[in-house]
Design goal:
alpha/beta; seven-stranded mixed beta sheet; four-stranded antiparallel beta sheet; 15 strands; binds pyridoxal-5'-phosphate
């Protein structure tokens, strides 16, 4: 890419942090042993893997033995949901209506085995209703799954309160913390959570590695079978370089978190204030709730969703669409729909997600370009 443009899609994937690259290099170049081998090459890899595990554990207030490396966030969610459904056959699983597809689709996959899925609703800001969780608990689910922070609108969920209720009911609580890690505090010793899903590439680590925190004593069935690695929950030779890159990225993100997030939040607020001022009728979805400092989801009613995204891309601004394109038709996002946003508002929505590399000049450029794009795209759609 000659001019990479303005990247405001950190929630989709973040650039690799230099700390992560540095941590990975020795295991991409010279050190290649299999952590399960008993010779010195293996022991070298094992020591590195355990070092990465210990560092991640420390960051989230867990014990090293509670961290299971997985292939990214999707697999961590899958092991949590399907692993619990298979562990407690006959019990339903309860998920919120705004979960990432990794949780939603895993829960629906469990239906093939006869598992019933309870969907817990959210309010107009995309915050899970605690009364819906309470109602679900009455049915003794195998797991309650409510994400720490939503990936589309950024709303933070009442995980502390939900965790307490689950614990009191003796029900396992899973939270997808893929978008929260490195942006807000995520601690297993501060919240009554039993399972937590993480993904390295969202915090500046490599793609294709994630982790599942499994509180000691939480029974789970694996999805894969083989060599028994990762306490049998994720068999297969471990990605040592990936684990080191993940731990280094998460550590760097955490070390810089308060300062970096204060800066990014100010930029996000400037972006929202500027857009509200310049684009008539623009709505900020989920603005009434506590949100990640990095995310802004806006709707431009009257604009064609695809034209909006494509025009921004032509202007060099990379963002995500709030709507999904499936078989040629643009479907409003399930998150916005669950929040009660009307289809004509939910459809033309855009998610900006900022990160540590975002600059004030980039936000200024968006404020310059976006209003004209919105006007043009609205005119295209007609009166
Ligand atoms: N959960 C959430 C909330 C996400 O935002 C994502 C990625 O977009 C995932 C899970 C899946 O993570 P991965 O891409 O590492 O499989």
């Amino acid at each position: 890419m000659t001019d990479p443009g303005i990247y405001l899609d950190y929630a989709a994937s973040a650039p690799l942090r230099p700390e992560a690259r540095e941590a990975m290099l020795p295991f991409l170049e010279g050190r290649f042993g299999n952590p399960s081998s008993i010779h010195r090459f293996g022991r070298d890899a094992r020591a590195a893997l355990e070092e990465a595990r210990a560092r991640l554990a420390l960051l989230i207030g867990a014990a090293p033995g509670e961290i299971v490396f997985t292939h990214a966030g999707t697999e961590a969610d899958g092991v949590a949901i399907l692993g619990r459904a298979r562990q407690v056959r006959g019990a339903p699983v309860a998920i919120s209506s705004i979960e990432h597809k990794a949780v939603l689709a895993s829960a629906h996959a469990a239906e093939d085995d006869g598992t019933r899925v309870i969907v817990m609703g959210v309010d107009g800001n995309g915050v899970v209703r605690v009364d819906a969780v309470e109602a679900a608990l009455e049915e003794r689910p195998a797991v309650v799954s409510v994400m720490w922070a939503n990936n589309e609108v950024g709303t933070l969920q009442p995980v502390g309160e939900i965790g307490e209720r689950c614990r009191a009911a003796g029900v396992v609580f899973h939270s997808d913390a893929v978008q929260a890690l490195g942006k807000v505090p995520v601690r297993a010793d501060a919240v009554a959570v039993d399972l937590l899903a993480f993904s390295a590439h969202k915090v500046g680590g490599p793609k294709g590695i994630g982790a599942l925190y499994v509180r000691r004593g939480t029974a789970l069935r694996p999805l894969l079978f083989g060599g028994g690695q990762e306490r049998g929950l994720r068999p297969g030779t471990e990605d040592v370089a990936g684990a080191l890159g993940f731990a280094a990225a998460a550590q760097a993100a955490e070390a810089q978190r308060e300062q970096a997030m204060a800066r990014v939040e100010a930029l996000r607020d400037r972006l929202e204030a500027g857009l509200r001022e310049r684009v008539p009728g623009l709505l900020v979805n989920g603005a009434g709730a506590a949100r990640l400092p990095t995310v802004s989801n806006v709707s431009v009613p009257g604009a064609d969703p695809q034209a909006l995204l494509m025009s921004l891309d032509l202007e060099g601004i990379a963002v995500s669409s709030g709507s999904a394109c499936s078989s040629g038709a643009v479907e409003p996002s399930h998150v916005l729909t669950a929040m009660g946003v009307a289809p004509e508002v939910a459809g033309p929505s855009v998610r900006f997600s900022l990160g540590w590399g975002t600059t004030g000049a980039e936000i200024d450029r968006v404020l310059e370009v976006f209003p004209a794009v919105a006007e043009r795209v609205r005119a295209l759609a007609g009166p």
